[in-house]
Amino acid sequence: MSHRPERMAEAIKKEIADLLRNEIKDPRVGFVTITGVEVTKDLSYAKIFISVMGSEEQRKESVDILQNASGYMRSEVGRRIKVRHAPELIFKLDNSLDHGSRIMELLHGINRQEEKPNNE
């Protein structure tokens, strides 16, 4: 089995991060973290999972803005990693960090309850 999709995913992640840091200047795009990239076996699509700080509305707006800029980013990624056909970029909101934070809050709450002495 080929490792090309994995190599392509890493290259895309690096280049998208650089584009977000240096070229995408829209103030409506919040603090964005790329949490992962999945490239299809035929290298035609790349799902880019992002985490965005802010309210749910701000998160959705950031994803929409990035999706609207995906054509530009696709051409830049293709030029930078020197591929003839860059994959179509699809931005997806990754809520796993929120879920992880919620689980940690619940676990800390359980620990605090166990540490309280029973007043019976």
Give a structural overview.
The protein is of the alpha+beta class. It has one domain (4-95): GMP Synthetase, Chain A, domain 3 (2-Layer Sandwich), CATH 3.30.300.20. It contains four helices and three strands. The protein has helices at 4-22, 56-68, 70-81, 96-115; strands spanning 32-39, 45-52, 88-93. A three-stranded mixed β-sheet has the order 1-2-3, covered by helices on one side. Strand 1 (32-39) and strand 2 (45-52) form a beta hairpin. The longest helix has 20 residues, at 96-115. 16% of the residues are buried.
Compact summary:
With 120 residues, the chain is of the alpha+beta class.
> What's the SSE pattern?
HEEHHEH
Spatial extent as radius of gyration? 19 Å
**Class based on secondary structure composition and strand pairing:** alpha+beta
In total, how many beta strands? 3
Proportion of β residues? 15-25%
Shape: elongated
How much helicity do the residues have? 40-55%
Main beta sheet: 3 strands, mixed
CATH architecture: 2-Layer Sandwich
Provide the CATH top-level class.
Alpha Beta
- CATH fold type: GMP Synthetase, Chain A, domain 3
Number of domains: 1
Number of helices: 4
Low-confidence stretches: none
Widest sheet, order of strands: 1-2-3
| Fourth-level CATH superfamily | K homology (KH) domain
Mean pLDDT comes to 87
Distance between the termini: 63 Å
